[in-house]
Amino acid sequence: MRFFSLEKLSKLLLLGNSLTGQLPPSVSDCQSLVRLRLGENQLSGEIPKDIGKLQNLVFLDLYGEIPPQLGELMNLEQLDLSQNRFSGDIPSSFGNFSYLNKLILNNNLLTGPLPKSIRNLQKLTMLDLSGNSLSGPVPPEIGFLTSLSISLNLSFNKFVGELPEEMSGLTQSYGNRKKPIDSFAAEIQILGHIRHRNIVKLLGYCSNKCVKLLLYNYISNGNLQQLLEENRNLDWETRYKIAVGSAQGLAYLHHDCVPAILHRDVKCNNILLDSKCEPFLADFGLAKLMNSPNFHHAMSRVAGSYGMGTPPNITEKSDVYSYGVVLLEILTGRSAIEPMVGDRLHIVEWVRKKMGSFEPAINILDSKLRGDGRSDGPGDAAGAGIAMFCVNSSPADRPTMKEVVTLLREVRSPPDEAGKTSQQPLIKPRATADRCSKNANSMQLREEVEKKRRFLGV
């Protein structure tokens, strides 16, 4: 593959093809590589040992045998080696992944015990080792990981013996007292009554002192992050549908549920898509009822995903901020926390930098929305203004999710104005929020939204 002679290559996505042969050793020459996805092909042979030299790599999806040198990828955040024919032990060097949040090794031929070094992965949110031939007892180190907010799947292996005490004695800590994890069932009963077209339907759950299983409807088209990463040609209509549907789901949680519910982990990974790209909010593992007696204690301890919220004071406006980040990802095609080569700004700071230079709003949009006849002109540019309104540094000046839905519904301008707004500088949200919030207590919602819409230039 001649791709690997490109020294400035930062992202290479070739998944889902019929590529054959071996990954060339020259891959280690791509020192700028951040994302490498070669899964769902027919590659064979060993992964080059020098792959450990790619210190900028944060996302890896490969085929082949697992070399211990993978443990040298110190900045790796996601490692997906699932559904291959990897064999042998899980390298103990995997414990070096201090930034790893997802380790997905399911459906391989891995054998042997779990390495004790796995307890070092303190940032893990997902560990999937299912469908292998791992053996021996489940090590106590797994118990240490379960103190995190983690999705853990060890099914269909050859583990024997009893579960470690660290797992069987799980509790959730709230302030200065302990709450048994079985009380989770009471909260599930509340979440089980949520019925909205843009929220996954909880069908039931299975529970004992060691295992919790939530049963949801199957959503067939993956999640929003996968859709954006795979560089599919998403037109404005599809992005708009996803943005509005996600906002409607959040607005339902905040304004129509009694008591109100905070999602607390709104991100592209947690927005599932069906075959028609209709969005569904998912993963309520961090959700909280606002009138829960433990609400304020819990808010001070868990703050959702890095880059998506605004700790330490978690309110419904934190969900609004996270939604604003998602909306920016939808419009720009950039990841919220992807360390792009030469530009390592968080997506919010990146857009603010563009705003400060008074560039046309259209300049922040995904290149697939610019100049190809599929952009809605003022619609997608004004959407960027709404997103920046949501990520205002002052929570009090952010809109409610009900207001966001109304703004998005009114975001399309008449045909004779097409292209007008997109060539204007981005509107700074602070001025908009200041103007909108002066008499917030005395204004009706419609008046509030109309004023915000006007100042966003929609």
Detailed description of the structure:
There is one protein chain. The protein has helices spanning 140-145, 165-168, 184-191, 224-229, 236-256, 295-299, 316-332, 347-356, 378-390, 401-409, 429-437, 445-455; strands at residues 11-13, 20-21, 35-37, 42-43, 59-61, 78-80, 87-88, 102-104, 109-112, 126-128, 133-137, 151-153, 158-160, 171-174, 177-180, 202-207, 212-216, 261-262, 271-273, 279-281, 288-289. The chain is globular, with a radius of gyration of 23 Å. The chain has a seven-stranded parallel sheet, with no helix packed on it. Strands 7-9-11-13 form a four-stranded parallel sheet, with no helix packed on it. A two-stranded parallel sheet has the order 2-4. Mean pLDDT is 72; it is low at 168-183, 295-307 and 413-443. Strand 14 and strand 15 (177-180) form a beta hairpin. It has three domains: 2-171, Ribonuclease Inhibitor (Leucine-rich repeat, LRR (right-handed beta-alpha superhelix), Alpha-Beta Horseshoe); 176-216, no CATH class; 224-455, Orthogonal Bundle (Transferase(Phosphotransferase), domain 1). The chain has 458 residues and is an alpha/beta fold.
As residue ranges, the low-confidence spans are 168-183, 295-307, 413-443
Mean pLDDT: 72
Largest sheet, strands/sense/barrel: 7 strands, parallel
- Strands in their spatial order, largest beta sheet: 1-3-5-6-8-10-12
- Overall radius of gyration: 23 Å
Using the alpha-carbon principal axes, give the shape: globular
Please state the structural category.
alpha/beta
Number of strands: 21
Kindly state the percentage of residues in helix: 25-40%
CATH superfamily of the largest domain: Transferase(Phosphotransferase) domain 1
Total domains, how many? Answer: 3
Instruction: Just name the CATH architecture of the largest domain.
Output: Orthogonal Bundle
The CATH class of the largest domain is Mainly Alpha
Query: What percent strand?
Result: 5-15%
By CATH, the topology of the largest domain is Transferase(Phosphotransferase), domain 1
Roughly how many Å apart are the termini?
47 Å
Total count of helical runs of at least 4 residues: 12
